[in-house]
Amino acid sequence: MEWSKVKNIIILLLLLVNGFLLVLVGMRQERTDQYQRSALTQAVEVLEQNGIQVEEEKLSDVQGLVSQSVERSTQGEQDLVRTLLGEDAVRVDQGGGLYTYENSRGQVSIRPGGEISARMAADGGWETQDPLSHAQQLLDNAGVKAELLEAQLEQGSGTVLFRQQWQAAPLFSSHILFAYQDGRLTGIEGTLLIQEQGQTSAVGDTGEAITLPTALLRFLDGVLTSGEVCTAIESMQAGYLASQSFSGSISLNPTWLIRSDTADYYLSAVTGELTRVSEG
């Protein structure tokens, strides 16, 4: 038999094998999806049997979110300060990881965990007719992605509150508040996780995240164990929660923010631990 015919037969056999493998993978994925849907439905039924109503369309999963470790970026912090104060701000090391920056436009303090406090001088030049757009622009200039949570403004005075986003997911522990008086920026308070342009995050080996059905059952167990009163889950949002390690790096762990009819909770997708969100 000619080699060209043999080659064509081999190619055909390889295509058939690949097609068969694709069918097997598709069937396996379909069975997995069916199992997950069934497990989620059963978990919702268990909660409802215990008096907690849940609407499945209001639940989000943490698939795609991975635990990360992010090192503090003093260079990134200086870039943020330059956005606020300009190039001539003087940095002073106060010890313990606290840095202050100051010039005629104001003063900015940044702590190791990303806590930021800024006081702007009365003649600092930060005046605007649109505080909301102004605050958003400052964050954009600093390379910080954030979503608006609340704006309480009247005639150029009031506050604008943002929550930081990390790789398109909400960073629940990072909020930043901008204060304005008569169209002038007077101060900034909150926490931001600052990263240099092009810097990558190390991914920690913390094992596979718990599934959404398991998370619902962990929530039920935590509520029943603590004696909390809850009759409905109003939403379940996936994101990150930050904590500072002893080494000084910031750990980001996949977490659900669960809003019930009585309180808000964090549920770790790594450990399954349920904690109530502190007020204020």
Task: Please tell me about this protein's structure.
By secondary structure, the protein is α+β, with helices and mostly antiparallel strands. The protein has two domains: 43-71 and 200-280, Beta Barrel (Lipocalin), CATH 2.40.128; 74-191. It is 30% helix and 36% strand. The protein is built from four helices and 15 strands. The protein has helices at residues 3-49, 74-85, 131-141, 212-226; strands spanning 53-54, 68-70, 90-95, 98-103, 106-110, 115-120, 146-154, 157-166, 169-181, 184-191, 202-203, 232-244, 250-260, 264-268, 274-276. The chain has an eight-stranded antiparallel beta sheet with strand order 3-4-5-6-10-9-8-7, covered by helices on one side. Strands 1, 2, 11, 12, 13, 14 and 15 form a seven-stranded mixed beta sheet that branches. β14 and β15 (274-276) form a beta hairpin. α1 packs parallel to α4. The N and C termini lie far apart (82 Å). The mean pLDDT is 83.
Topology:
Layout: H1 3-49, E1 53-54, E2 68-70, H2 74-85, E3 90-95, E4 98-103, E5 106-110, E6 115-120, H3 131-141, E7 146-154, E8 157-166, E9 169-181, E10 184-191, E11 202-203, H4 212-226, E12 232-244, E13 250-260, E14 264-268, E15 274-276
Parallel strand pairs: 1-12
Antiparallel strand pairs: 2-11, 2-13, 3-4, 4-5, 5-6, 6-10, 7-8, 8-9, 9-10, 12-13, 13-14, 14-15
Helix pairs in contact: 1-4
Report a brief summary of the structure.
With 280 residues, the protein is α+β, with helices and mostly antiparallel strands. The chain is 30% helix and 36% strand. An 8-stranded antiparallel β-sheet has the order 3-4-5-6-10-9-8-7, with helices on one face. Strands 1, 2, 11, 12, 13, 14 and 15 form a 7-stranded mixed β-sheet that branches.
